[in-house]
Each structure stands twice: as structure tokens, then as C-alpha cells.
Design a protein that fits this description.
single chain, 227 residues, alpha/beta, 8-stranded parallel sheet, 8 strands, 37% helix
């Protein structure tokens, strides 16, 4: 299917999820995860009306940026190595994977203006996943006040890959509750109003539980070999 056709299905699903929880689709930012597709497919996403693209590797981001440039807003959604920050910081609109002081220090050093960042939280506790433990998030947010080029706009998590809806909802609810605690502190450096959670298999559930940014790859742009 074309990206446009896929997007139509997803938009209908988002609208239904929003109706279920009293929200509007304007509350939701769809990020097309293009890490497994070609430049041509990413360009097709732009033509279909998608404004936000997500990459998780320096090389993939820079390769696509060379062709697409500012026609998209670029999100870094994978673990970002501190030594690679200097190569991508000027291209990025948002970073979804801030999870350690060394990375914050490098972002602060290399950025020419405040960078909107999500703090990545390992809500599920899986060893295979990056992110801070939930109990460490408030202290980390407080530490971020020392970095003038970091703006904590929200929290991000990757839920377990499971069909267990209650388990998924539980993870998303924990992140939302943690977000609410931080948001309600009204910190100038950490408004923390957003939630980046939900992917191809669980974005509708994530939206019902409060997601503002969903990262959709296979169901939107698909996957292509040799990428």
C-alpha cells in the first residue's frame, strides 16, 4: 500500500482512539519512523502530508536529510551516542532519548539554541531497553536545570512488544502519572507537557492513555530490504 493509503487508515484509527478518550486528533503528532526505508519512501511520506520523520541512526538521518532537508521536522528516536551529537544536532527538531548526564552535557555544548528533549524512561524494566528507571526521573529532571540548551518537553517510553492490552496500558499509565508529577511542578526548564509513546502495534492504546507523539514505522511507511 502507498503511504497515503496507510496514513488514511492510521488517521481513522487515531480519530477513533481520540473519541474514546475525549481528545481530538489535533492533539496527536504522528512521527513516521523511516529508519527501515529508502529516501524515496521517506519522500513519499512527505508528499502524503506527513511533517515529522524519525530516525535512530546518525547515518540514516544525515543521508535522508541531504535529500529532504527542512521539508520535514526530524526526530531522533534511538539511543544517541554522545560522540555523534555534534553531527546531527543542527538537523534535529526533537530528541526522544535523553537518558544520561553525559548526553545532556554534549547536547548543551553543541546546540546553538535550546533543544526540545524527551527523557527516555524504562517503565517496563526490561534489560534490553534504554532509559532511566522511573524512580530516577525526578532527580534527573532537576539536574537538567543546569543545561540552558535543554528543554524537557516530556517523557518517552517503549512499551513491551506484547498483545497484552492491560500490560501496555499499565506501562503507559505509569509514564503519564510520572509526567503529571513533573509537569505540575511548573519548572521553567521542564514544562514536561508531552508524552512520546506508542508505535505501530500499540499507538491507539497509547493515545487513549495520553500520548501526544506516536512513532509509527511499519504500519505507515512499511519496511524495505537492505536499508
Amino acid at each position: 500500500m502507498s503511504v497515503k493509503e496507510n496514513l488514511s487508515v492510521i488517521e481513522n484509527s487515531i480519530e477513533e482512539a481520540c473519541q474514546n478518550c475525549g481528545r481530538t486528533k489535533e492533539d496527536i503528532t504522528v512521527i513516521a519512523v523511516t529508519k527501515y526505508v529508502s529516501i524515496a519512501r521517506a519522500e513519499e511520506a512527505i508528499e502524503a502530508g506527513i511533517e515529522h520523520l524519525g530516525e535512530n541512526r546518525r547515518e540514516g538521518l544525515l543521508e535522508k536529510y541531504e535529500s529532504i532537508g527542512t521539508k520535514a521536522k526530524w526526530h531522533f528516536i534511538g539511543s544517541l551516542q554522545s560522540r555523534k551529537v555534534k553531527d546531527v544536532i543542527d538537523q534535529l527538531s526533537m530528541i526522544h532519548s535523553l537518558d544520561r548526564k553525559s548526553l545532556a552535557k554534549e547536547i548543551n555544548k553543541r546546540a546553538s539554541q535550546p533543544v526540545p528533549c524527551f527523557i527516555q524512561v524504562n517503565v517496563s524494566g526490561e534489560e534490553s531497553k534504554h532509559g532511566l528507571a522511573p524512580d530516577d526521573v525526578e532527580e534527573f529532571v532537576d539536574l537538567m536545570k543546569n543545561y540552558e540548551n535543554i528543554q524537557v518537553v516530556g517523557l518517552m517510553t517503549m512499551a513491551p512488544h506484547t498483545d497484552n492490552e492491560e500490560q501496555l496500558r499499565g506501562n503507559f499509565r505509569k509514564l503519564r502519572a510520572l509526567r503529571d508529577i513533573i509537569r505540575d511542578k511548573h519548572l521553567p526548564h521542564a514544562p514536561c507537557e508531552s508524552l512520546s509513546m506508542g508505535m505501530s502495534n500499540d499507538y491507539a492504546i497509547a493515545i487513549e492513555e495520553g500520548a501526544t507523539h506516536v512513532r509509527i514505522g511499519s504500519k505507515l511507511v512499511g519496511e524495505e530490504a537492505n536499508q
